[in-house]
Design a protein that fits this description.
Helices cover 25% and strands 13% of the residues. With 60 residues, the chain is an alpha+beta fold. The longest helix is centred in the C-terminal third of the chain and has 11 residues, at 48-58.
Length: 60
């Protein structure tokens, strides 16, 4: 799932607060904006097999 809301990539250095936008660049400083949504999962998760097994076992 892709999020439409983006945040300025330089907000920690340039702004005192996060600057959210829908465009590819920040409206205040012109820096690139990045996706705010976290990745849904990590394919290299070393404990994923155990977490999924526990979830399956507890499903009743």
């Amino acid at each position: 799932m892709k999020s439409d809301i983006r945040v300025c990539s330089a907000w920690r250095d340039v702004h005192g607060r996060p600057v959210y936008t829908l465009s590819e660049t920040c409206p205040e400083c012109g820096a690139d904006s990045e996706n705010t949504a976290p990745a849904p999962f990590d394919p290299a998760d070393p404990h994923g097999e155990y977490r999924r097994a526990l979830k399956y076992r507890n499903r009743d």
